[in-house]
Amino acid sequence: MPTLSSHAQFITCCDRDYDRAKELQEFDETKAGVKGLVDSGVTKVPRIFIHPPENLRGLSSNSNGTGLQVPIIDLRGCRDFRRRDVIDGIREASETWGFFQMINHGVPLDVMDSMLEGVKKFHEQQVEAKKELYSRDGTKRVRYYCNGDLFLSKAATWRDSVIFDFQDGVLDPEAVPPICRDAVFEYEKHIAELKTSLAELLSEALGLSSDYLSGAECMKSETVLGHYYPACPEPELTLGTVSHSDLSFLTLLLQDHHGGLQVLHESHWFDVVPVKGALLANIGDFIQLVTNGKFKSVEHRVLSGQVGPRISVACSRPKQDRNRPLGPIKELLSENNPPIYKETSLSEYVACARSHGLATSTLPHFRISDPKWRRAVENS
Ligand code: OGA
Ligand code: NI
Fold first, then answer.
1. 7-322 CATH, one of 3.40.50.150, 1.10.260.40, 2.60.120.200, 2.60.120.330
2. Of 11, 68, 149, 238, which is the most buried if we count CB atoms within 10 A?
3. Looking at the predicted structure, is the pLDDT value of residue 377 above 60?
4. Which atom of ligand 1 lies nearest, measured to the CA of 240?
5. DSSP states of 56-117 as a string?
6. From residue 190, how far is each of 183, 197, 364 by CA, in Å?
7. Whose CA is nearest to atom 6 of ligand 1?
8. Which atom from ligand 1 is nearest to the alpha carbon of 300?
9. Cα–Cα distance, 307 to 158 (Å, whole number)
């Protein structure tokens, strides 16, 4: 539970004499991120990072005592003798948790370890070396930044990120800093292969032909996002990542051993306990949309920790320039299962999400039951 003092501190942060915009600007101009703050020796979380109590609810408690946890799915034999079992496991997990941990997924352990190490090394370079890549320009294929929604959100989070955008699988190696170049390319190659298998398994889990999702190009376009969560002097006042659902079809997530990731399940927060060698699959908003709500894109968040840095790598955000209409898959609809979402496109969806920031869920805006759309449908 948030302490009284965190509440009091948040109230202080809302004082009129607090020029938040100016403090954000000054922080952004350092181009040194949260890592820079920590290196400068801060012992208190600056007020731009202090969250309102409602964001911090349940920080110190989790519901893992119930014995429930994010399902672990063993992909061994998923091409042959265990295919049915694996598909059943994926369907169940996608309908309930929206998350599953995968083991025996085929991405070698040393490739994952090098990727985590590469992200760590990138962020731990001298500021001078990474500063030129600091940017909020989403058209840049390689860039580093602190909080994509820094100027939109009510409170910043304790995290820096570096992004590598493999549009249609292609990225100029020269654009990637040598400090992590080999690790990034090797990792992306393996993730793209795993995504191809998962596209088949998810299609079959929906009762569709195995090439359905890959044929619809749902799984294409890869971004590799390397997060760095520095140790935090007052973790009870801020978060690593605010509660959100992903603007993707499917996100594959690699986390180190620190923990801190939590998933909201049946209105309770559950820790996603790190499993060495595992990769996490996270159903994104677009799968929820195209499956007409059958597979769930769930809220998750990352706590900040006294011990760190924590490193994680998230793969797959949709490209922004896609104008193709996307809506519930016709084959899944019936009289008893009418469409609950209206058609949209990646670009329209991402623009909508950007306009309100990470912390507010976007999918409800596209529900047909939303009064705005219902009026549009009734008038059409
Ligand atoms: C994300 C995300 C979790 C993590 O990048 O969307 O939820 O563990 N990351 O960093
Ligand atoms: Ni996420």
1. 2.60.120.330
2. 238
3. no
4. 10
5. HTTTT--SGGGS----EEE-TTTTTTTHHHHHHHHHHHHHHTSEEEEES-S--HHHHHHHHH
6. 11, 11, 34
7. 246
8. 7
9. 13
Do 146 and 28 meet the contact criterion of CB atoms below 8 Å apart?
Answer: yes
Q: What is the pLDDT of residues 69-98, one digit of tens each?
A: 999 999 999 999 999 999 999 999 999 999
- First vs last Cα of the chain: how many Å apart? 48
Paired strand residues for 269: 264
Q: Which residue has the higher pLDDT, 285 or 324?
A: 285
Q: Is the dihedral of CA 174, 180, 181, 187 positive or negative?
A: negative
Average pLDDT over residues 332-356: 89
Which of 228, 279, 300, 361 to mutate to test ligand 1, by most ligand atoms within 8 A of the CB atom? 300
What mean pLDDT do residues 302-331 have?
A: 87
Which residues sit opposite 370 in a β-bridge? Answer: none
Looking from the CA of residue 272, the nearest atom of ligand 1 is 8
Q: CB–CB of 343/325 below 8 Å? A: yes
**How many angstroms is it from 246 CA to the middle of ligand 2?**
5
Q: What is the mean pLDDT of residues 131-150?
A: 95
CA distance 60 to 138: 35
Q: Give, for ligand 1, the residue of 246, 248, 303 to mutate: max count of ligand atoms closer than 8 Å to Cβ.
A: 246
Distance CA 289, CA 247 (A): 11
Nearest-CA residue for atom 1 of ligand 1: 314
Neighbours of 258 (CB within 10 A): 19
Q: Is the pLDDT of residue 249 over 70?
A: yes
* Burial annotation 284-310 (CB, 10 A radius, 16+ → b, else e): bbbbbbbbbbbbbbbbbbbbbbeebbb
CA-based diameter of the chain, in Å? Answer: 66
Q: What is the DSSP letter of 367?
A: B
Distance, in Å, from the CA atom of 176 to the CA atom of 164, rounded to the nearest integer, reads 8
Residue pair 296/97 in contact (Cβ under 8 Å)? The answer is yes
Per-residue model confidence as pLDDT tens digits over 281-297: 999 999 999 999 999 99
Give the tokens for residue 10. Answer: 């948040």
